[in-house]
Amino acid sequence: MSNLLTRRLALLAQPEHRPVLGGLRGIERETLRVDASGHLAATPHPVAMGSALTHPQITTDYAETLLEFITPAEADIGTTLAKLDGIHRYAYSKLGDELLWSQSMPAQLPGEEDIEIAWYGTSNMGTLKHVYRRGLALRYGKAMQCIAGIHYNYSLDERLWRVLAEHEGNAKRLSPKSFQSEAYLATIRNFRRYSWLLMYLFGASPVLSSGFLRGRPHKLETLSDDTLYLPYATSLRMSDLGYQNDAQSGLSPHENCLDSYVAALTKAVNQPYEPYAELGTKRDGEWIQLSTNVLQIENEYYSTIRPKRVIQTGERPIQALCARGVQYIEVRCMDVDPFEPVGISVQTGRFLDAFLLFCALEESPAISPEEGLRHTDNFARTVKEGRRPGLTLNSDDGAISLQAWGQQLLERIRPVAALLDAQRGDTVHADAMAQQAAKLLDADLTPSAKVLAALRANGKSFAAFGLAQSKQHAAYFRSHAPDAGEAAYFDGLAATSLAEQAEMEAAPQSSFDDYVAAYRASNLCHSSTDCD
Description:
This protein is α+β, with helices and mostly antiparallel strands and 532 residues long. Helix content is 45%, strand content 12%. It has a single domain (3-521), classed as Creatine Kinase, Chain A, domain 2 (2-Layer Sandwich). The longest helix has 23 residues, at 402-424. 45% of the residues are buried. This is Glutamate--cysteine ligase.
């Protein structure tokens, strides 16, 4: 452990500081609606679930059939997952014969023209969300809009940052807002250093449907007629086969300070990209993308982790960060766990909490461009061949085996898990650590290995495996229908959301062209501050 981590753990272990070890955990889980044979559902978003535009917990993301379930932020990941379970059970009460797909990589997909882009109604805001997704389809293809993941939203108690600032002499140098933002960016830098470990431990997409690549060149191997794979892959979703393109390849906003991060994204949403410029923003009078810039909006930047701030009505994400600083981080690299009905286990959540707190408390120097490339390479190696025997990664001290480095990291994280357990009075974080340590000793225990083993035992078809898991999860949720109180709660959210959308559509609106112009011209942050 570094001296800084040792000092911070000792500080936070003091009885008067134990209360600041809290924070909030929220999950966004994406999942495709499919029919009973595993094909993409051809139906619109179920109106019984409410409005995809205004519902706080049930919406769509990219494709019309890609549901997104959003939990409230809770103090304990166990509570968060209980809420996520409740959303799933309610959704199944409205799905009819349809199923929720159990995998990150999509089911058997129809032709591009038959994949519907998410629709949010006729208000300007709803149309903006739809046109943005038209632009994504243009830039990445519609098959990419059917990939699902788990987003893990994580924040620490704001009092914790104040305790650290006071004891480390930063309270006079930096405002609380600035110290907190710097601390979250330091957390993100450590995440960049070590997130390859998450891909080894939790990656669950070593295979994909042969039709997914739409003829794109690849170096995958054939497992069966309908299934491609890499024998040692952990997460093809997070590889270069996932949501990436040439326009974003040169975009890497470094996270050494908030001003630098904001400036890079501000430039990307204002910088034209020639291939997009050739397409224009309209075709036959219809909007096809919001702009011809590198990014249409800042959320198009597909990072494995993002600094975040809850936005106010009409505000853009960068504006919120600039005005009020970083409030939480969003971890975006987690695959859907196909063996868990809600897509993630509580043990995974416990480990993530210990891992992210370690990233927050450990020394985190600025990352040079060269170091950034090394982190990117370690991540890329792990997602494509993380289970390869003898695989080496590049640490600060040179080449090291993935297993050896992983074990070193777990040793450094262990005291953090112990601190969390001491606060709770149990051993749930230590137990989660032990579960991950076993995977480093035996790669067959990883989710990616378990997926491949299940396929090899049952005909080697990704589609068949995904459908079997989806049906198994459906049986669980349908046998645990929401009780009257839960059903009334979600019915109320659905009714309110539909009324809010109707009110927005009935209100006087400017022309959509003017609305987009105002949105694009909204005051993004421009800073001359430099950081190393």
